[in-house]
Specification:
The chain is of the alpha/beta class. Helices cover 34% and strands 24% of the residues. The structure holds ligand PMT.
């Protein structure tokens, strides 16, 4: 079930490190590619060769060690992971990550990844209840890191309390929740139209008005829908992103072209997600020759472009329509107005003045607004994770048994 998925398993120096052996073995049995990173103390509890044999990959323990036959450096590994699973996670690694300390291979790689990170803590119950640990844990949860709660039971010290690592099968089941998109059955065969990227509005052959959209957010939505089994068409403005596998891409440049491609595909679509950053204005006049530089100012008169989303809202029929709102400053009120005015089912609001949010970033922090007034506020997440959460929200709007 996990063929094509890459899991980086971080093993830290808790006595439960031996259970990570079984976790790695089970992940491999499911077809996942597994890389193991051990802290120095973990390597004193379980021999790295055990993990090397089971994962069929070299095991890293030191930040500056000679890579031997390993061609994956920590940044590449961080980028390649679909999931980071830290098992067992000691108070030490959780404290380090919560406080931005990156002083070994594992903590550095966790810092460098935008994949979901799942900690499976295991420790003495007094340590687990320690307010410092709890503050660190809550801090990480607030930042979008995930935790598998330890179990109550007999601990290595002989004491009984909360702090025991769950059994390997429970850990793998939790990991699968991140690796296998939810709702695969609900999306199979659904027809999803996505827009992504900027538009360019030219006033001569080499000059245009545009914005810094990279297309990443919309491409992640398209890929997420595809992973769930939907048929996906992507109307894209100019980006440097490769076409997602299995998705039909319609390349466009201007708002007018994007409008035309969206309208041509509208009858086909059941769900429309509009993540594109469409220019609201375009030059009234286009000079077929490059405009000559002169001493004085150049005044370019602008006119409105077609509002694609508004038009789709007008012709919505039974489709589900998701818009985005890129706002500067508190986005809720403006997003709610767009939701109403453009006849949307959902709007995804991002405050693009925040670091790591919106244009060009690898991550995004959004609020999803529903027509009935509900708001889902998400922490800063990778755009891939945001895309999954948007699809979860769409899925929640389908009646049970619908399709
Ligand atoms: O591409 P990335 O680098 O990953 O960045 C992601 C993003 C910031 C572009 C994305 O998260 C986002 O916010 N997209 C919408 C940007 C935008 O144009 O917002 P807006 O508030 O101006 O427009 C509201 C909605 O109307 C959007 O769904 C937009 O696609 C649509 N619109 C706007 C103008 C227009 N003429 N036609 C439209 O359809």
């Amino acid at each position: 079930m996990l063929a094509g998925k890459t899991v980086v398993v971080g093993v830290t120096g808790g006595i439960a490190a031996y259970k990570a052996v079984e976790v790695v073995s089970r992940l491999r049995q499911q077809g996942a590619e597994v890389y193991v990173i051990m802290t120095r103390s973990a390597a004193r509890l379980v021999a790295p060769i055990t993990f090397r044999t089971l994962s069929n990959n070299p095991v890293v323990t030191e930040l500056f060690e000679e890579p031997k036959n390993w061609n994956v450096e920590h940044i590449a590994l961080a980028e390649r992971a679909d999931l980071f699973l830290i098992v067992p996670a000691t108070a030490n690694i959780i404290g380090k990550v919560a406080n931005g300390i990156a002083d070994d291979f594992l903590s550095t790689t966790i810092m460098a990844t935008v994949a979901p990170v799942l900690f499976a803590p295991a420790m003495n119950f007094h340590m687990y209840e320690n307010p410092i640990f709890q503050i660190n844990k809550r801090r990480l949860e607030g930042l979008g890191y995930h935790f598998l709660e330890p179990e109550y039971g007999r601990l290595a010290s002989g004491a009984v309390g909360r702090g025991r690592l769950p059994e390997p099968e429970a850990i793998v089941a939790e990991a699968m929740r991140f690796l296998l998109p939810a709702g695969t059955a609900a999306w199979k065969g659904r027809r999803v139209l996505v827009t992504a990227g900027p538009t360019r509005e030219y006033f001569d052959p080499v000059r245009f008005i545009s914005n810094p959209s990279s297309g990443k957010m919309g491409y992640e939505v398209a890929e997420a829908a595809r992973r769930r089994g939907a048929e996906v068409r992507l109307v894209s403005g100019p980006t440097s992103l490769p076409a997602p596998t299995g998705v039909s891409v319609f390349a466009t440049e201007t708002a007018q072209e994007m409008y035309e491609r969206v309208m041509e595909n509208l009858n086909w679509a059941e769900v429309v997600v509009k993540a594109a950053a469409v220019a609201d204005y375009r030059p009234v006049h286009f000079s077929p020759e490059k405009v000559k530089k002169t001493e004085g100012n150049l005044v370019v008169e602008l006119e409105r472009t077609p509002d694609i989303l508004q038009e789709v809202g007008r012709q919505k029929g039974g489709r589900l329509l998701v818009g985005f709102a890129a706002e500067t400053g508190e986005p809720l009120e403006k997003a709610r107005l767009k939701l109403e005015r453009k006849n949307l089912d959902l709007i995804v609001a991002n405050d693009v003045t925040q670091p790591g949010v919106g244009f060009g970033a690898e991550t995004n922090q959004v609020k999803i607004l529903f027509r009935d007034g509900r708001i889902v506020e998400l922490p800063l997440l990778s755009k891939r994770e945001v895309a999954e959460r948007i699809l979860d929200a769409v899925q929640g709007l389908w009646e049970p048994g619908d399709k």
